[in-house]
Amino acid sequence: MSQMDCLRYLQEQKKQYPEKWHRVKDVQEGLQQKGLSNGVLKGVANDLFQLMRCGDVEWRGVGAWNHYKEFRAKRC
User: Fold this and answer.
1) Per-residue burial over 51-68, b = 16 or more CB atoms within 10 Å of its CB, e = otherwise
2) Banded model confidence at residue 1, pLDDT cuts 50, 70, 90
3) How many other C-beta atoms lie within 10 A of the C-beta of residue 71?
4) How far apart are CA 30 and CA 49, in angstroms?
5) pTM of the model
């Protein structure tokens, strides 16, 4: 269920901010504000990587030394 929560959150953010990219921490904080439990929040990184692997979200790598990935919902 957590993958769907992450995907829904990114889709909602895409409607409000079409060009904004989100880090894993941003998604965790957004889901926490929506009132989801720690069981969901601990697996957010894995859920986002699974969505990325399946092609359900766009992603990009940022930085060479301090590398992290950013995600956003695909264009509708």
Assistant:
1) beeeebbeeeeeeeeeee
2) low
3) 23
4) 17
5) 0.88
CATH of domain 2-73: 1.10.10.10
Distance CA 47, CA 50 (A): 5
Quote the CA–CA distance of 51 and 18 in Å, as a whole number.
19
DSSP string of 7-75?
A: HHHHHHHHHH-TT--B-HHHHHHHHHHTT--HHHHTTHHHHHHHHHHHTSEEEEEE-SSS-EEEEEEPP
- Alpha-carbon dihedral sign for residues 41, 12, 22, 7: positive
pLDDT in tens, 2-42: 899 999 999 999 999 999 999 999 999 999 998 888 777 88
The answer to whether the beta carbons of residues 40 and 31 sit under 8 Å apart is yes
What are the tokens at 15? 């409607």
